[in-house]
Amino acid sequence: MVFSSLTFLFGYLPLTLALYFLTPLRRRNFMLLVVSLFFYGWGEPVYVGIMFLSTFIDYTHGLLVEKYRERDRLARWFVGQSVVFNLLLLGFFKYWDFLAANLSLLPGVNLPKLGLPLPLGISFFTFQTMSYTIDVYRRDAPVQRNIFDFGAYVTLFPQLIAGPIVKYKTVAAELVERTVTSRDFAAGACRFTVGLAKKVLLANAAGALWESCLSSQSAGALTVAGGWTGLFAFGFQIYFDFSGYSDMAIGLGWILGFRFDENFDHPYLSTSVGEFWRRWHMSLTSWFREYLYFPLGGSRAGKARTLRNLLIVWFCTGFWHGASWNFILWGLYFALWIILERFVLKDVLAGTPVLAKRVYTLAVVFVGWGIFAMEDLGVCGHYLAVCFGGGPAWSPLDGYRLGSWAVVLLLLALGSTTLAVDLWGKLPERARRVLAPVLMLLGLTLSTAYLVDGSYNPFLYFRF
Question: Which of 15, 236, 317, 449 could, after both became Cys, cross-link 412 (CB 3.0–4.6 A)?
Answer without folding.
Answer: 236
